[in-house]
Amino acid sequence: METFLEIQSKAKRLEALIHLSNNIMEKEKRMPIPFNDFLYLSSKNPELVFRNIYQLFHDMVHHYVPEGKDEFSRDNEHIGFVDYDTSVLLSQDCDDPFFSDRLFANRFMNLINDFRKGSNTNRIYIFEGPPGSGKSTFLNNLLHKFEEYTKKPEGVSYKTYWRLDIEKLGGFQSKEMQKYRIEEEKHKEKKEAANTSILNFPEKYLEFSCPNHDHPVLQIPKPFRRQFLEELIPEGEFKQKMFNDREYEWIFKDVPCSICSSIAKTLMDRLGDPLAVFSMINARKNYYNRQLGEGISVFNPGDPLCRENLSKPSLQYMINDLLKNDEVNYSFSYLAKTNNGVLALMDIKEYNVERLKAYHGIISDGVHKVDLTEEYIRTLFIGLVNPEDKIHYVDIKSFQDRIISVIIPYVLDYNTEVAIYTEKFNESILHTFLPGVLSNFAKIIIATRLENDAPALKKWINKPDKYSKYLDKNLLLLKMEIYNGKIPEWLSEDDIKRFNKAMRKDVLAQSEMEGRKGISGRRSLWVFNEFYSLHRNTNRLITMDDVKKYFENKKDDADVDVPDDFIEKLIDLYDYDVLQQVKDAIYFFNKKHISDDIANYLFAINFEIGDTKRNETTGDVIVVTEEYLETFEARILGKSNTPTTQKALRRETFNEYVSDTLSQEIRLEGKKVFDTKLFKALFDKYTRNLKENALAPYAKNENFRRAILDYGTSQFQTYDERLKRDVSYMIENLQSKFGYNEIGATQVSIYVLDKDLPNKY
Ligand SMILES: [Zn+2]
């Protein structure tokens, strides 16, 4: 009998075998296809077939990044500051995930969208970020996903593949002779035998790829290409784009490499018939592999320069032999390997400075000289640079219009920062903090990275004093929300209105200068770890006080540079939030009770003081007294309750009831009183005020405080019924509505009482 383990290991071996054979099949699928079939494919699926490296890369990014959302769009003032989800592209299935915040995601996606416009092709894209910003992780993951994409059906791209018909070209000249020589050499057991015996003359076809990965369409001679494609590509939207848009200009403008050109010319001379030449051209799927430097190459600063040309002597020998001349020079530079591919420089220093300068020349001319021939280079050049290494090229004037810089600063979004902590330290850290506290920890880290100056924000918020209860004087707390694409609820209607398109653009433009100082991405993990180790083993949850104390002790660290009032205001804002939560949790909402109260009031104000009437809607009999009306008015007005406001409320409610509610909505439109505008407005006001004052009876109640501390113990049973009900209700609501656990719920309730927050706000 086989044991379970044996069966399992057998299954695993089988799985590995299937995997291997799939890989082989994948290779098989790269079988060359005759030029005719390729043309058929082109006419059937031109969007997929006609893609240069920029278009392919663009499609790759959009394959992994779904269409973003722009929450601002509701008011026609959106500026394309979109919420993109880059997780599949940059973190999923990556050894070391990269998390992009909304600012960087927008910058990156705008850049990628330019790839499809065809205007930015002869450029070097340099991502500039301070050490510890994760830029090399970003690039590694990006290239990893590119490689993965090119192996999918939708990521296919094609190159020229030559398949020279040996018989049609009159066979190899020296084949027989060669065989003889090899035999002879072997006999003599001489060492040179090794060299010559490699020559393995094929029987039917001499096959090889264009080392420059020329797109097969380029093999159609340039003067005939337009006419030819005019007939090949079916009418429609794509054809319009192909013939008119700048992004497809390459199809008509580019020429094949010198190797392909010289082969085509020689074949034409020999065969005298273009169709016979085309019969020897095939298309083959490009194979991208970073490890082998196929289509993707990444150079580190220490990698020595490679100046030598690459060649394949045996192939060269056979080409010369078959074509019976030496017009084809099968030699190319290492740049050929990434033509129609990606070439990346990790850090512009040491040898990579030389490389950058060389590429700059190539990009400017679009041509690279190899011996006497010219290589046309169509490569996506990407580089990474630390700000201090920019000295290697910023002063060179001609570089400025060739280099496109993309800032990749430290993360400026506290949610992203939290996502990084949970990724590195495990999800479980989330349960060791009171809700909101970990985000606030991240906000302090982010604050060190932000500039204190905020001219655009200050232009917008012209009277920041009105928010002084929970906004720091540098407006960092507001800035963080805006950079996340959110407009805080506590802003006034006026200020929200003033945040129009132009203002939004100004505020976001400022972000280009941010995130280059303060606690780096790498160091923030260290800081978090230090803080977390101090508190992880306590039997309570981590609080704002813990965070505050920790950063107070760090004040002297050079990179912990936050404005004096920042942490203070952060805590104020936190206090305000948790107070609302606790109020919300204890507030007992009885919809029927409140609705009946309002309906009875609307009924009663129609009668004289002293009347006794039955309200048919609620079934209640009401004795209309001054006290009856005043009690209701006091409850709905709350803090603003005075004899004057009471009178005004009664008068306005009566007027609206008579002129609108009763005559229009109830009589004409046939609405129930509960569905009228007036009723809804009163209901809103009533519940808001009840909630606002929900905690008032308990704020100074020592029994209430003790009952919270005793919650969950046998001691709790000794309190009176109403108190027990309210405390339980509050603790349960804090858990179900705001994500606390039981310990956290009691902890935050006590926090609110001990800091006397009901009186603070
Ligand atoms: Zn070529």
Throw out a few tags for this protein.
about 750 residues; alpha/beta; 5-stranded parallel beta sheet; 4-stranded antiparallel beta sheet; 33 helices; about 50% helix; binds zinc ion
Biggest beta sheet summary? 5 strands, parallel
Per DSSP, what share of the residues sits in E-state strands of 2 or more residues?
A: 5-15%
Report the bound ligands by name, code or SMILES: zinc ion
Q: Could you tell me the mean pLDDT?
A: 89
Global geometry:
elongated
C-alpha-based Rg, rounded: 37 Å
In the predicted model, the low-confidence regions spanning at least 5 consecutive residues are: 190-195
Can you count the beta strands?
15
Strand order in space, largest sheet = 6-9-12-2-13
Helix content: 40-55%
Number of helices, counting only DSSP H or I runs of 4 residues or more: 33
Structural class: alpha/beta
Measure the end-to-end span: 75 Å
Describe what you observe in this structure.
By secondary structure, the protein is α/β, with parallel strands linked by helices. Among the domains are: 414-576, no CATH class; 591-692, no CATH class; 695-760, no CATH class. It is 51% helix and 8% strand. The strands form five sheets. It has a five-stranded parallel beta sheet with strand order 6-9-12-2-13, with helices on both faces. A four-stranded antiparallel beta sheet has the order 1-5-3-4. A two-stranded antiparallel ribbon has the order 7-8. A hairpin with a 6-residue loop joins strand 14 (612-614) and strand 15 (621-623). Bound molecules: zinc ion. Zinc ion (ZN) binds at residues 160, 210, 212, 214, 256-257, 259-260.
